[in-house]
Design a protein that fits this description.
The protein is 44% helix and 12% strand. The protein is built from twelve helices and five strands. The chain has a five-stranded antiparallel beta sheet with strand order 2-1-5-4-3. It starts with 8 loop residues before the first helix and ends with a helix.
Length: 258
């Protein structure tokens, strides 16, 4: 593989350092390198080895995909594979995710990729997406667009301003953390959807719930996010499992009723 980027690796490293709000002194201390050497790397005066690039990238918690980009910009081969989901090496990964999904039934849960597109889901997710526009359910399904689009779940979300603020803030953090232009573009799109603005944070709550109208009832959910703890593959690092749990007894009863 060869790099098509014309941006020097030193400039990219400096960009990541600034994105992480670190001074050269801060990063040098974390990576255990001299400030002088770091300065020379960023200015192009010194060509970093692949080991140094990875050391600095790990110190800044740069995603694996972007670590490969840094290596390519430095003239080196990528260090991390990007395996297709249906390839044999990812078999145990998908098996583990499917086991979690199966154990979570009848409650909703979904496996997402980096772009917030649905990879796998429980049967219980169908209860959440009842009544949405069919085109929003055409693969690849982007769950953020599905949630906040006026033809999606938005009209059924009882606390739309609160839930919208939560999702937009989370996406903004991810866009900043990954420097992914696709996420930044998605964020701009979602901000253009109606839904109100939550100005004052609500009191008396320990987490932000999803409160979804379902017939004459309102189902209330708490959500958790699960990721793999030791990923060494780009695809694996970018997978996340979003699970929704009943936030109250009526919701649990509605979802477990025969």
């Amino acid at each position: 593989m060869t790099s098509t980027s014309t941006v020097p690796v030193g400039d990219l490293l400096r960009g990541w350092r600034q994105r992480r709000r670190l001074s050269q002194l801060d990063l040098a201390a974390i990576a255990e390198v001299s400030t002088r050497h770091l300065s020379w790397v960023e200015t192009g005066r010194s060509r970093p080895t692949p080991q140094m690039i990875l050391r600095l990238a790990e110190s800044m918690d740069v995603p694996l995909r972007e670590r490969n980009t840094l290596l390519l910009a430095g003239g080196f081969a990528p260090a991390f594979a990007e395996t297709a989901l249906d390839a044999p090496p990812l078999g145990p990964v998908l098996e583990a995710l499917r086991a979690v999904l199966a154990a979570h039934e009848p409650f909703p849960a979904v496996v997402l990729d980096r772009a917030w597109e649905m990879v796998e889901a429980t049967a219980g997710i169908a209860r959440l997406v009842e009544g949405v526009a069919p085109d929003l359910l055409e693969p690849p399904v982007n769950v953020l667009r599905l949630s906040l689009h006026p033809d999606g779940l938005a009209p059924r979300i009882a606390n739309l301003a609160q839930w919208r603020a939560h999702l937009l803030a989370r996406l903004a953090r991810e866009a900043a953390a990954t420097a992914d232009p696709a996420l930044a573009e998605l964020l701009g799109e979602l901000r253009g959807y109606p839904g109100g603005e939550q100005v004052v944070p609500p009191g008396g709550q320990v987490v932000v719930p999803l409160r979804l109208r379902h017939g004459d009832a309102v189902l209330s959910f708490l959500s958790t996010t699960t990721v793999f703890g030791t990923p060494q593959d780009v695809t694996v690092q970018e997978l996340a499992l979003e699970a929704f749990y009943p936030a109250d007894a009526p919701t649990r009863a509605a979802l477990t009723a025969p």
